[in-house]
Amino acid sequence: MSDGTFVSLNGITQQFGENDVVTERDSTAGTMRDFTIRTTGNQSLVRVTVFPEYAQAIENLQAGDGVYVDGSYSEREVSGKKYKNITARTLAITPVAPRIASGKRAATKTSSF
Questions:
Q1: Residue 19 in contact with residue 25, Cβ under 8 Å?
Q2: Contacts of 17 (CB under 8 A, 6+ apart)
Q3: Could you tell me the pLDDT band of residue 4, with boundaries at 50, 70 and 90?
Q4: Number of domains in the chain
Q5: Is position 109 within any domain?
Q6: Quick one: what percent of the chain has pLDDT higher than 90?
Q7: 12-38 pLDDT tens trace
Q8: How many C-beta atoms surround the C-beta of residue 30 within 10 A?
Q9: Average pLDDT value for the chain
Q10: Residue 72 counted as domain residue
């Protein structure tokens, strides 16, 4: 893919160590926010850059949340390592399922046929 190509990606938000899932940085457009997803399919790590108008949408973003994003894709290479980025134009988030105290997912009703 070339820089500036419009793409759609989906994946799962990642957290690295004790770092926050979402990081902030200042730009001329305001406070930009970034987070990383591991894409479904090829399992690539892609940084998602979000403009200030999406700040409220990602304020409760957690590791493990599902993310669908449309936007402008770019890649850069530093010391032989390729870094991938998408600047969000459309963003949808599916929160991770809650867990009960034992660490297992909450039970759901099953139907019998």
A1: no
A2: none
A3: confident
A4: 1
A5: no
A6: 68
A7: 999 988 889 999 999 998 999 999 999
A8: 11
A9: 87
A10: yes
Q: Which tens digits make up the pLDDT trace of 79-106?
A: 999 999 999 999 999 998 877 766 555 5
**pTM reported for the whole predicted model:** 0.81
Residue 103 has what DSSP assignment? S
Q: Which domain, by its residues, includes 72?
A: 5-94
Asked, for residue 55, whether it belongs to a domain, the answer is yes
Place of tokens 């936007």: 71
Q: Which long-range contacts (CB under 8 A, 24 or more apart) does 92-98 make?
A: 92/67, 92/68, 93/57, 93/58, 93/61, 93/65, 93/66, 93/67, 93/68, 94/65, 94/66, 94/67, 94/68, 95/60, 95/62, 95/65, 95/66, 96/62, 96/63, 96/64, 96/65, 96/66
In a domain, 31, yes or no: yes
